[in-house]
Batch of 4 targets.
Target 1
Amino acid sequence: MASVTRTVFGDLPSGAGTVEKFQLQSDQLRVDIISWGCTITALEVKDRQGRASDVVLGFAELEGYLQKQPYFGAVVGRVANRIAKGTFTLDGKEYKVAINNGPNSLHGGVRGFDKVLWTPRVLSNGVEFSRVSPDGEEGYPGELKVWVTYTLDGGELMINYKAQTSQTTPINLTNHSYFNLAGQGSPHIYDHEVTIEADAFLPVDETLIPTGW
C-alpha cells in the first residue's frame, strides 16, 4: 500500500505558477516528484543492510531546476535525444525544430517538457501529470496532449506515458534520472557495473547522432 503526500515545492518567477511536490511512499521505497517537468527529485530505497539512501541526483530547492542543469530527473520531450541539425521530414514536408545542442536539437528543444509546469491529479497510489503542447511548439507539428503517470506498488515504481496528437508528429518520451546506487553524495559511480542484454548497439558520430552503420 502506498501513501501520497502533496506539498508546495516553490513558486516560479514573475508569478508564473506554484510548483508542487508529491511524495509517494511504501514500506520499501519513497519517491518525490515535482510538477515542474514531472521531475523525480529523490528516490530513497533500502540497501542490503536495510539502510535507506537517495539513489538519484537532484536538488533540494526549486531554484536548482530553473538554472541550466543536465535534465536531472525530468521527463524530456517531445523527442528525447537528438534530432540531427534540427531537421526532419514527415509526410513529405520538412520541419525545423529548435537547435540547442551544438548543431542538433536535444530533448525537445530550448523549452522542452522538462521546462514547463504540468497539471497534477492525485491518485490512490500515485500522481498523474498532464499538459497540452500547442501546435508548433518548438517547431513540432500538431497539438499534443500528454499524460505522465507515476504509481508505486510495494518496491516497484512505474511510469506510464500517454500522448494524443491532432496530426502526425514525432513523439519519444522518457525520464532523465541520473542514478548513484551508493547514494547521493557518494564520491563517484566508477565501480558500478551495468549489464545490457542486447544483440547489437548503435554507433554514433562525434555529435552523438547515429551513423546508421
Target 2
Amino acid sequence: MTSRPPTQADFPSSLVVDIIPPSSGQPINILILLHGLGDTNKSFSQLGRNLNLPETACLSIQGPNPIPPIFTGSDTPAFHWGDDVLIDEGKGEIELDAGFGIIERVLAEVVKEGLMQKCSYPARNVLFLGFRQGGMAALHFAASSDVEFGGVISIGGRLPSSSGAGGGKSKTPVLVLGGSRSAQVTRSAVDALKARFTDVEYVKWEKGEDSMPRSREEMVPIMKFFARRLRSRAGVPEGAVEI
C-alpha cells in the first residue's frame, strides 16, 4: 500500500506537533524530532526546515508535560518527556531520567497508529532525532518496540535506566553523539546501548559539552547516517518493490 503524507488529524488532538513537508515531492521517509528538556518544539521545527532532507517529512513533537514555573524560574513555556519532574539534589537540576512510560504510549499512537496504520509508512522509513532527554525518549521507544525503525540519532542522550535488557537486541541502528566531557554519553552508557541494540555508532566530539551541532564537522556524522538510512525513489523503477 502506498503511503500518504501525514496530517494533524492522524495524531492525538492533545499532541502539539508541527509537520514540515519536504521541499519537493512526496515524503517516503518520516523524521521525528524530539527537543531537549525545558524547550518547546519550535526550535526543532526550524531544525527540520534547515535540514531540508530529500523525500522526508519532519514531525517536530512537543513534550507532553509542562514544567511548572517554580522549577524553571520563568513564565516561558517549557516542556519535558519524563513521567514526572524529579530533581537531582546533588546538582540542583531537573533529572533527565524520570521515567518514559507516558511518552512511550504517546509515540506508539503517533508512530504505530498514526504513521504505520493510518498513513501506511513502514517502520523502516521512520527515523528519530532527539536532543538530551528527547534522545533518551527516542532510544527508549526504539528499544521497547518489536520492529526495526530507520534509525535513532541521539545527541547527548543515553538509554534510560527503565529501558531494561528484556528480550532480544533491537535491530534499529543508533547514532549517539556527545561531548568529550559528557556526563550522559559515557563509556558505560555506550556499552549499555550496545547491549540493547545490534548497530551502535558513537561519535565523541572535541567540544566538552553536549550541545547541538555548531559546525560542518559536527554535522558530518549525522548527515552520513541520514545518507545511509533514508530511503529514496531515485533510480527505482516505477512499480518496483524495495526489499
Target 3
Amino acid sequence: MSFTGKYELQSQENFEPFMKALGLPDDQIQKGKDIKSISEIVQDGKKFKVTVTTGPKVMHNEFTIGEECEIEMLTGEKVKAVVQMEGNNKLVANLKGLKSVTELNGDTITNTMTMGDLTYKRISKRI
C-alpha cells in the first residue's frame, strides 16, 4: 500500500494539552488549533518525503525505513530517530520520549502521538 498523496486534516483530539506538554507557546497553539494542515507524502519504496503545511509553517522531513534520520518535531527541534514499518500500512517512530504511529487505511491517515499518558490524534483524508 502506497502512502503517496496529499491529505487534509479532518479532525484532531487533545491538540491543546499535547502542544502545551511539548512546550509550544500559547500564541502558537491558538494560531494552529483551527488550521486544516495539508500533508504531502511521497513514497518511493522505503524512502519517504513528508511535507506538512500548517498555515505559513512548513515542516519537511525525509527518511528511509529502518535507517537513522533527523526528524523535525512540532517545536522546530530536530531529533535523531529510526522510522519502522509495521505491515504495509503503519509507520512507527520514537522521538525523544514521544511515540508516533501513522496508519493508512484506504484514503484516511490516522496519526497518533503519545507522550507519557497524553495522546494526540489527527485524522486526515486524501484530497
Target 4
Amino acid sequence: MCTSLTVCEWKKVFYEKMEVAKPNDSWELIIDPKLKPNEPDPGWKQYLEEHASGRFHCSWCWHTWQSPHLVILFHMHLDRAQRMGSVRMRVFKQLCYECGTARLDESSMLEENIEGLVDNLITSLLEQCYGERGGQYRIHVASRPDNRRHRGEFCEACQEGIVHWKPSEKLLEEEAATYTFSGASEPKAQEGSGYNFFSLHWCLFWAFLCVLVVYLQFSFPTSVFL
C-alpha cells in the first residue's frame, strides 16, 4: 500500500522498468526510514544517490523550498535460487529553516526526476546483483557544481555523516576574495589611525569649547580699568 503519491510513483516506475530489464525475476521496492548508510545486511549491496532534486513542504508553517541536495539510500539483495529480489529505500529528509521546528519533512519529486533516479538504481542493481554492465548513469542537474552553500545543519543526511555536497570553484573563489578583502582592510584602518580633527569626537569637543567660551564671557564680563 502506498503512503503518498511520490511513493506510489516510485514503485510504479521501478516495477515497470524492472519488468523490462529482468522479466523472469520478481522484485519488490520497500520504503525503510531506518535504513543506515554503509551498514547493509550480509549479502546486501548498497547504492547511494547523492544528487537528487526534490521539493519540501513544511507541515508546520507551510513553507516550501526546492533542494538540489536530496540524498537517497538503497540496499539491494537478489536471491538467485528463488529469482526474487528486494530493494530497500530511504529518502533523507530536511528541516525547515524558516520556522526552526525540529520536525523533519519529506520531499516530493517530479515524475521525470523519479524516472532518471530509477534508471540509476537499476544500473547499479544490474552491476552489483547480476554482475552485468548496467550502462551509463544519468547525470542530473543537481550533480553539477553548485554556487549556493548547502545548509548541512538542516539536512538529515549530513547529520548522519554522509558527505554529499562540495562547494563549486566559483563559491570558493568568492569566499576567498571576501576573506582577503576583510583581512586587508584591517591594516589600512590601522595605518590611517592618526589624529583626525574633523572626526565626530573632535567636532563635539570644538563645539563644547565654543559654548564654554561664550558662557564665560557672559558670566564674567571684562573689567574696564580707568
